[in-house]
Structure prediction request, 387 residues.
Amino acid sequence: MRASVKNKLLTGKSMGIVWSLFVKPLIAIQDSEKAHRRAVKALAIADSFLPTRGLLKLANRRAELPSERFGLSFPNPLGIAAGMDKDAQALRGWANLGFGFVEIGGVTVEPQEGNPKPRMFRVNKLQALVNRMGFNNIGSIAVAEKLAKAKSKGKWPDVPVAANIGKSKDTTNEDAAKDYSKTVERLWPYVDLFIINVSSPNTPGLHELQQDVALTAVLKACFVVNGEMAKQTGEDEKPILVKISPDLENAEITALVDIVIAAGCAGIVATNSTTTRPTSSDAKVKSQLEQSGGLSGRPLANRSTEVIRIIAEHTGGDFPIIGVGGISGVEDAWEKITNGACLLQLYSALIFQGPSVVKQIVKGLRRKLSEHGLSSLDQAVGLALSQ
Prediction:
């Protein structure tokens, strides 16, 4: 083994050991939201200085598994999910951790504090999170300014950037179309694609926007802005996707997919967090699960994959799906890919396992492709549908 390769391997293993022995225990004794905020800030600071940025890139050297979707090039199919970096603090840092794309937000048109604290809880035994954050963010104007600054200073990541768009808590559903489309307009010059979030369980009445008339109105307004901005700049329109809830009935899912396709959306994100709860005989776990809010992490894995398969079967495998929910290793990732997802996202696994999980999953997917005699990720998408 060449010395340079060996050093890289050792560096990656060392970072994993550091995470397990020092970082993870430190996070465990902190309030969940404070730990989250400090971790994102630390990543942003580390990315700001050349030596630490270089160390990040070396320790988390990106595993390549390229694909083309939405007219964009993804160096690998694994992205960081919405909610991790709501205010676009560490854009380039996520790419330097090895992710193939980044999703910021949810961003609302105006700044909002979100729900009262505490509002984020770890369920360590289940590798799950419960949160009722409520779209806390600095607002679309401030986020747009951050994005503009990152671009002008050459701090933009070398991967696609998506923006998750949410509805302001004080905006009525009747005014939701204007609310969403204004945020799209403000962020349009900077991001590569938009994900319209009508499925967060933590904003009152938001789930109602997954219904026919309401969703059609929101998407129509966003597409009008999309066309206007493209015309003004001479650029192509940006892909628009919709993020859905795992708590919908199966028939509701297929009906929603038909609406999304009819509106001209480029794809769908499946799924958001869930309000359902697994059973547990552990008193501490039961207490944690009783917290109100959306549950993410391992307990969501099966339902998320079911939703992906429902969508893929309903559309004949021709409609792009970003799979998110409960991915904690290569087997989860492979299951979502073979049931119809073309791209994937992590959230909880990064918290419970650390940055090394990114490379492990992408390398594991490459190994799976080899084992099945496949040469590209596209060949694996929906592979299980015929079985």
User: Anything to note?
Assistant: The longest helix spans residues 3-28. The chain has a mean pLDDT of 92.
